């Protein structure tokens, strides 16, 4: 008979969730950098699983002590659609939904939604990270690299933010890290202006 993994309890009064393991590692590193000790960071296993996560959210041990929930999601091709999708999942599970991305609805629990990269543009977490390192000299090399690929292979695709992040990370001392691992190693400049809306969202939960 297979073992059923026990549902982990909420041990902190605030919960911040991201789509996958990279996002979880990224947000954990940000929380440590900020010295925040009252936020539990988790992943919800991809966009299609948010509904299930929120359904189980109300049944988890320690749920009555949770006063704030922050949900992050990539905008991908539409900020508005991503935000509405999250809000639908919230309402379907009896949770408050904010009126706009980047805002926090009154609780209990308080619920905030942050659509990456910045609640305004289409894109993803990788776009936000690239914004934060635009002044790094390696960015010009990344651009040259993709121009070279197009010139020498006739591949005309526009490199995605994921591809550009991989190329930038390949320029670092340890070239084999994923985005979240790089965050834990201190590669992303948390002081960058690009990260401030996300920092303010986290602090407002």
Helices and strands, with pairings:
Elements: E1 14-18, H1 21-34, E2 39-43, H2 50-57, E3 68-74, H3 79-92, E4 104-105, E5 110-116, H4 125-132, H5 138-153, H6 161-170, H7 179-184, H8 196-204
Parallel strand pairs: 1-2, 1-3, 3-5
Antiparallel strand pairs: 4-5
Describe the protein in words.
With 205 residues, the protein is an alpha/beta fold. It is built from eight helices and five strands, in the order βαβαβαββααααα. The protein has helices at residues 21-34, 50-57, 79-92, 125-132, 138-153, 161-170, 179-184, 196-204; strands at residues 14-18, 39-43, 68-74, 104-105, 110-116. Strands 2-1-3-5-4 form a five-stranded mixed β-sheet, sandwiched between helices. Strand 1 (14-18), helix 1 and strand 2 (39-43) form a beta-alpha-beta unit. The model is unreliable at 1-5 (pLDDT under 50).
Question: Could you give a quick summary of the protein structure above?
Answer:
This protein has 205 residues and is of the alpha/beta class. It contains eight helices and five strands; from the N terminus they run E-H-E-H-E-H-E-E-H-H-H-H-H.
Question: Overall pLDDT, averaged?
Answer: 94
What does the largest sheet look like? 5 strands, mixed
Task: Please give the radius of gyration in angstroms.
Answer: 18 Å
- The topology string of helices and strands comes to EHEHEHEEHHHHH
Helix fraction, binned, reads 40-55%
Global geometry: globular
Count helical runs: 8
Question: Which regions have little confidence, pLDDT < 50, spanning 5+ residues?
Answer: 1-5
Number of beta-strand segments:
5
- Which strand order does the major sheet show? 2-1-3-5-4
């Amino acid at each position: 008979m297979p073992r059923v993994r026990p549902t982990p309890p909420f041990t902190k009064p605030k919960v911040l969730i991201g789509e996958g393991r990279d996002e979880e590692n990224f947000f954990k590193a940000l929380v440590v950098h900020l010295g925040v000790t009252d936020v539990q960071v988790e992943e919800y296993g991809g966009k299609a699983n948010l509904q299930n996560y929120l359904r189980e959210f109300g049944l988890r041990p320690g749920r009555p002590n949770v006063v704030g929930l922050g949900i992050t999601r990539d905008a991908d091709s539409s900020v508005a659609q991503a935000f509405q999708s999250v809000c639908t999942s919230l309402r379907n599970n009896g949770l408050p939904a904010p009126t706009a991305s980047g805002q926090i609805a009154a609780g209990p629990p308080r619920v905030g939604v942050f659509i990456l990269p910045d609640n305004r543009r289409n894109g993803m977490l990788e776009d936000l990270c690239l914004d934060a390192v635009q002044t790094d000299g390696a960015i010009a090399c990344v651009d040259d690299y993709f121009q070279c690929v197009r010139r020498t292979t006739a591949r005309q695709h526009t490199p995605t933010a994921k591809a550009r992040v991989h190329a930038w990370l390949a320029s670092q001392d340890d070239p084999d890290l994923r985005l979240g691992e790089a965050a834990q190693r201190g590669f992303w400049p948390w002081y960058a202006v690009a990260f401030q809306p996300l920092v303010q969202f986290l602090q407002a939960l």
